[in-house]
Give the backbone structure.
Amino acid sequence: MDHPRSPDQVKVGIMDDPHINAASGGGGEFYVTTGLLQKADDLRLAGVLAHELAHDDLGHVAKAQALGVGLNIGMVILDQIVPGSGALTPIAGGLIARAYSRNEEYAADRHGVDILKRAGYPAQTMLNTITWLAQTEGTDSGGFFATHPATADRIEALRNVR
Ligand SMILES: [Zn+2]
């Protein structure tokens, strides 16, 4: 992380959504779906979270919010999270905002690789995660691919930087 946050600055909201998805709400706030938690193993969960962390770390979230695009749903959800409650009550609703440009998505994948490496994860974790997303979620309209570019394009872009 270029702009590390201490653990007490980080909040994670769990959304009651069978699709595999995650989002960064800015300011150290993240959302994961119950679908992601149920279907991902630890490495894939780390891969998805690294991508969302990268969006936050690279300033994409702040930029999107300044432009007033996307993450409107996140703003609604934020009100429903009780800070420090420790209760894992899934939030109803889905993540449908597509907030970032394609270049920002590719940058988040690349920076996510750096974050994973620094955390000691295998170098292939991000590529494996994206491949797994494609195989598991397919072209399902409600999940990760509703808010992210086509997987084949992301894999290609990630391979090209090596
Ligand atoms: Zn993204």
